[in-house]
Amino acid sequence: MKRILILSIFVLALMMANFVQAQDCNYFTLSKGNVFGYQNLDAKGKVTGTTTTTCLDVVKAGLATNFKVKSEYTDSKNSKPSIHEYTLRCENGNFYMDMQGFMDPKSMESLEGMELKVDSKDMMYPSVLSAGETLPNASITISASSGGMNIMNMIINITNRKVVGNESVTVPAGTFDCYKLTYDVETKMMFKTNTTVVEYINMGVGNVKTETFDKKGKVAATTVLSELKR
Predict the structure, then answer these.
(1) Which residues pair with 42 in a beta bridge?
(2) Neighbours of 175 (CB within 10 A)
(3) What is the CATH class of 9-229?
(4) Quick count: other Cβ atoms within 10 Å of Cβ 37?
(5) Diameter of the chain by CA atoms?
(6) Judging by DSSP bridges, how do beta strands 219-229 and 82-91 pair with one another?
(7) Most confident residue range from 134-138, 148-152, 190-194
(8) 60 half-sphere exposure, CB direction, 13 A CA radius
């Protein structure tokens, strides 16, 4: 199975989007039909693929609001897109991302037909961010089996989430004033890997840019907002 695309921003970048009719989650509110385009870059800044995420529907469920979204990833060779649908949630003024959205769609496709057991703690974002604030951890564990036999276990732990300050960020879609967030990611499958992620979040657009650093502190991958339709 292909490795997980750790915090692949083609998913993460879409979790926080259009701040329309901000009643429950303040600026963490999507509207049906919102479209966000992102470019995925390698360590040298070369485009390795693009992602288009669309908000398909907004559904009230008691005190919560669920946002159904579809993410379509295409690599630089324009091969057949990988399509992944998942749900985001607004509840009690907080915005939650289903941690299954952190999985590489191609990796998930390789698990089709297997019995899956998922245990997760969603990624939470409060309706207001403040420099110096510490945010809750998140995690997901996926166990795959076939015929009662365990095939593999996959664990992602996200810790040390902090709002470290404010910064102006320029990407293909424009220049935005952003909050800068950082966190650590530990992935366990056949072996363990550790990375650090930096997110830039604008209170009028959502995720604008994400950088992933390896254990040596070097940029391993970047995702930038390239298109916005509201």
Answers:
(1) none
(2) 11
(3) mainly beta
(4) 19
(5) 53
(6) unpaired
(7) 134-138
(8) 4
Q: Distance from CA of residue 90 to its chain's centroid?
A: 15
Count of residues in the chain: 230
Residue appearing with tokens 């009230």: 60
Q: Which residue has the higher pLDDT, 171 or 26?
A: 171
> CA–CA separation, 29 vs 21, rounded Å?
7
| Residue 162 to residues 68, 125, 186, Cα–Cα distance (Å) | 27, 11, 16
Q: H or E segment at 174?
A: strand 174-188
pLDDT at 110 (0 to 100) = 66
Pairing of strands 82-91, 47-61: unpaired
Q: What is the CA radius of gyration of the chain?
A: 17
Taking the whole predicted model, whether its pTM rises above 0.85 is answered as: no
- Give CA–CA dist 119/140, Å, rounded: 6
Phi-psi region at 206: left, alpha or beta (left = phi > 0; alpha = psi -120 to 50): left
* Residue (of 12, 72, 2) closest to 222 by Cα position: 12
Task: Categorize the per-residue pLDDT at 46 as very low, low, confident or very high, splitting at 50, 70 and 90.
Answer: very high
Which are the contacts of 209, defined by CB distance < 8 A and separation ≥ 6? 169, 171, 178, 199, 200, 222, 223, 224, 225
Q: pLDDT digit string (tens) for 169-189? A: 999 999 999 999 999 999 998
Domain residue extents for the chain: 9-229
What three-state secondary structure class fits 204?
coil
Q: Give the residue carrying structure tokens 């056949």.
A: 190
How far, in Å, CA of 144 to CA of 142, rounded?
7
